[in-house]
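Batch manifest, entry 17 of 40.
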Amino acid sequence: MERNFSDLLLPFVVPGLDQLFVLGCLERRVTLYSQQTRAINLAYLLHASKALERRTRVLVVGAGAAGLTCAAALRHLGATVDVLDHSDQPLHMQRGCSTRFLHPHVYDWPLRAEWSQKEANLPIMNWSANTADRVSAQLLAGYRAARGPEPYCEIGNLSIQRETGTRDRWRAEWLWRRSSRSKTYQVVILAVGFGLEAVVEFAPRISYWRLDTLGQTPLYEPNCRFLISGIGDGGLTDVARAMLKELDHSTLIEEYLSGPGMLELGQTLKGIEETANALAENDHAAAESYLARQYKALVVPTWFDAKLRARQRHCHVTLVGPKRSPFTLSTAIHNRLIVSRLLKLGLNYRTGVVRKVDPKGFGFDVVLEAPAGIMRGRKERLFVDHVVIRHGTQSALLASFPDVWQRLRERAPLPSIERAQRLWPNSMFVPAKGITSKKRSILRRTLDDVSITNRDDAEQIRLTVSCMKDEDGTSPSFLSYGIRHYWWQVAISGAPSDALAVKYRLDGESNATVSECTNGPSFEALLAAPADRFVIATIRAVRKSFTLKCRLKEHSKEIEN
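Output type: structure tokens
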């Protein structure tokens, strides 16, 4: 089915500003994996819609996970990319943070089968589950391996204006290392992130990505009292960290979500989610009320609550939120499940808004006010040892580019498109190993000759090579170390019926097996053939052995870097 790339690009487009795109910033899903997925989607869509050509000059504003991933993908597709950021280093949010554990797929439990996989399985800047600081190190290593452009960090006075007399060119000016810079770009991508968290006056300012002691046993306050304000994923996660010992996503998957009876419970929760989403189309309040009833009546395996009880700390935790229930559709199902069980183990939930925090001695005097529509004006005062505020973020896009933010807020509603789902074809960004070259070439190869070495006078074997086509009719390709490679489909027919295996390799390379198959006399495989290589197909049988050698002719032309 042919895709309409212009429609798929609409969520990234800023109305009235041609060739300026926004990546993330206003999205609902904010996990690291979803940010990277959207970034690769945008790079692919720009390429597929012809908005991006070789040597197109692109400016990416933001050196977080989304900005770096998008920059690496665009560079992979042949664009010339610059990355700018106000912070002093790339991925500044996650670097040095060892108290947060990141997992690429756990937020998909139980909706998708791959939820337990530790690998992100991304073609660019791939990573596996670990603490935030170690994941950031993996991402930076992947960025450098993809030869992403070195970001301009600690920039100041950034100004992006339309080039005089044009509609699709942009002039960017900024200050870097005490010198002014100015460049013209054909495409601008704003990947400034979601912003810093909202704060309450006099409350401790501990960002979600900054080191804290929430997951440690309190030293000076027996029966410590925590107040956590906010019912998003950040707030629910911190409730679990405060009440349970040594809980991270790795523990959650291995000890809780993968245990006996959890498959059936997952199906039940999946059904609850589908019903709640259907209700939310007409009435969000009805959907949240339904979630509250279902999670309160949820029946879980007995061992689940027993494990939680065994990990429970001797502390008092109060969760504060502006709704009657802490369960909303914007949070992950596994977080809702954990909190629903902790409510039965002593977690205290208060409906209210934190209006005032006064430090008193070694604790805090907190004033809660009932939200509008729920006993408005009623106030409650609590004294606690620790206060954690998780009220979401203040828009970085609004702070840095208010005109862009306003245009996006005023645009017409878009059709429902999940931007965090992969849109690019599997062959679009395929890494190649062991290939080095100083020459950049555009390679177009055709079948030149086929030589067959026939042992034991066996029957004729036929090998055909043809260039693949994607659904959109284009030839999938990828760049690796300055060489463009095209994917080819290799088919072998007429092989002996007792053939056991077929292997393809790139001639002259050590661990160069591309594919192996044992499905009998006919075989098809996909491989990428670089310049000046032979594609070797070796068929091994019980009594017969054949070597087929196919040379692909190279037509190349030099292009400027």
